[in-house]
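TA notes, week 10

Several of you asked for a full example with nothing omitted. So below is the full record: structure tokens for the whole chain, then the designed sequence directly under it. When grading your own attempts, check the secondary structure regions first.
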């Protein structure tokens, strides 16, 4: 069985690819504006797609505590209106939908039937 990427990797990769930022940068400590935008987008979409709590999102993105995720979720609606982010968002959503569907299919195939 080939390993399927975890859901946060799928979300972070889609955001990073659309915005020209690596997953390592999204998960890293940088405060450069373009990286923060990608990180906030990924955190907001992780909440939307995965339904995870703020502490779980913060841990997945290697942040110290939930307040980082809280700030990202609070500021994302305002950031999402920026033209380059608004343009990228439908492409990011389409990629996440596609990759999460492929992950679910792979996991369903790998699961033993009772």
């Amino acid at each position: 069985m080939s390993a399927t990427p975890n859901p946060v990797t799928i979300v972070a990769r889609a955001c990073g690819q659309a915005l020209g930022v690596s997953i390592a940068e999204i998960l890293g400590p940088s405060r450069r504006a373009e990286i923060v935008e990608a990180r906030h987008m990924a955190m907001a979409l992780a909440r939307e797609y995965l339904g995870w709590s703020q502490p779980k999102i913060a841990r997945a993105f290697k942040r110290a505590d939930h307040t980082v995720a809280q700030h990202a979720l609070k500021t994302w609606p305002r950031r999402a209106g920026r033209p380059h982010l608004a343009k990228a968002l439908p492409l990011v959503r389409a990629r996440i939908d596609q990759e999460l569907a492929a992950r679910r299919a792979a996991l369903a195939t790998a699961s033993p039937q009772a």
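The two ends are 19 Å apart (CA to CA). Use that as a sanity check on your answer.
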